[in-house]
Amino acid sequence: MPASRPARKSVPQDAASADTKTRILDAAESQFMEHGFEATSLRGLTSAAGVNLAAVNYHFGSKEELFQAVLTRRLDPMNQERIELLERMEREAGERAPSVEKILFAMLVPALRLARDERRGGKNFLRLLGRAYADPAPFIRNFLSAQYAGMIARYKEAFHLALPQLTRQELTWRLHFVMGALSYTLAGTDALKLFAQVTAFEKYDDELLLQRLAPFLVAGLRAPPLADSRKLELVSGG
Amino acid sequence: MPASRPARKSVPQDAASADTKTRILDAAESQFMEHGFEATSLRGLTSAAGVNLAAVNYHFGSKEELFQAVLTRRLDPMNQERIELLERMEREAGERAPSVEKILFAMLVPALRLARDERRGGKNFLRLLGRAYADPAPFIRNFLSAQYAGMIARYKEAFHLALPQLTRQELTWRLHFVMGALSYTLAGTDALKLFAQVTAFEKYDDELLLQRLAPFLVAGLRAPPLADSRKLELVSGG
DNA sequence: GTAGAATTCAAACGCCCGTTTGAATTCGGA
DNA sequence: TCCGAATTCAAACGGGCGTTTGAATTCTAC
Predict the structure, then answer these.
(1) Measured between alpha carbons, how far is residue A121 from residues A28, A127, B196 in Å?
(2) Nearest CA in chain B to A148
(3) Nearest to residue B193, comparing CAs of A5, A176, A210, A57?
(4) Which pLDDT does position B115 carry in this prediction?
(5) Which residue among B169, B194, B218 places its CB closest to the CB of A149?
(6) Looking at the partner chain, which of A181, A192, A207 has a beta carbon nearest the beta carbon of B235?
(7) Tell me, what's the pLDDT at B213?
(8) Which pLDDT band holds residue B50 (cuts at 50, 70, 90)?
(9) Which segment of A16-30, A199-213, B22-36, B176-190 scores lowest on mean pLDDT?
(10) Nearest CA in chain B to A114
């Protein structure tokens, strides 16, 4: 028997193991992004990372735990930054509530910063995140829920103050739409290459992207809710 | 050697094989939705469909071709319906171009009809589609591109007439955002269960959903483009 | 310098995968 | 009725999977 595995709770954290762990996390980030969770093999992953096959199970316990570690490494700081930015804006706004634009920017900018920082995973990580959003695997959904719950609740309150004309239900739906457009756009597999026109004429630039996304989302959030009387007459044919 | 496989081009299409093929397609639709392409096993799939393991390779050739057949069965009619609806609206609008709302509804309503029709896959299929959108596997991306190219080009023209103030680039981006919010919403894994509040108070109703989504998207499409002078001052800190 | 823990390593375990095979069966038209 | 094509079937093929093992090695503190 080996000298005994480290207890799951202990954090060895010496230089050598941190290096191996980091190499695994980096390789996992790009492999999970490229092939998805299920189709990524630990053999290919460890070989790309230049570490032994058993290292994943030694350092992370299992493939699932490795996946969660990959997400945590980036999401925790990003969501923390989002909350701090929102709170700074609330302080700066004084008694008045921050505007919809300001709140939205506080949400978008940390994601943009992450996308531009290759040392923090860059676009690779955001694409991975976009895939994770669409994955129905329970361990992924539960994990993301836990990661996002606090941040989302915080922003929902802020938007509620900035958009008092919307009911809570309306606001919940609209935040859903915002997250959809955002994750889909940031995941940026260029959707279906249907929009290739853009990348042909215009360099794919994340800052420019958010300058286009922001007015779209702000206008959507500010739209008057549909009155009950107006319906989609088309649905039932005719 | 067996009596010889049917040539890939021939379409046997007799009752017995159609039945087996349909059973496979139905099972594949729900299994691919639930587990994703890679994690779905043909053994589980064929056993759920009540057919022999070899039937998939016999009738469809391979797992990949089966996946494409699952998508084609629903997408072809839906996109055809979208185009027909758009053309009807263009005829009804006469010389004037149809409004943004009208065009958008022509896009959304066939998806809604599909979602409500359990005989055509219902929500299962739309969730599957939402996953496929986020999948970077080349065979999926190329297939979806081919499936959507005509429809998207058609709609882009219609929107261009309805929104002449937008440059082609702006319009392309906004359609990208629209597709994002739409696919994310229709895929409706309830996102991250972060929005559970909605399903608690309000029955999950697709028609109601589109009545909330439409004003959001219409307002986003109609938003004035951001002037170059306004920037995200926050990006570089400060 | 050495004991003991942490880490790396090659090898193996048991299992499931997509696909192919060739015989058995069913089907449809002459 | 019967023949050939279409379809179903059980079995096997070769290979990759996540994980575990126990010895070998490296690190660290005394």
Answers:
(1) 11, 10, 30
(2) B194
(3) A176
(4) 80
(5) B194
(6) A207
(7) 92
(8) very high
(9) A199-213
(10) B235
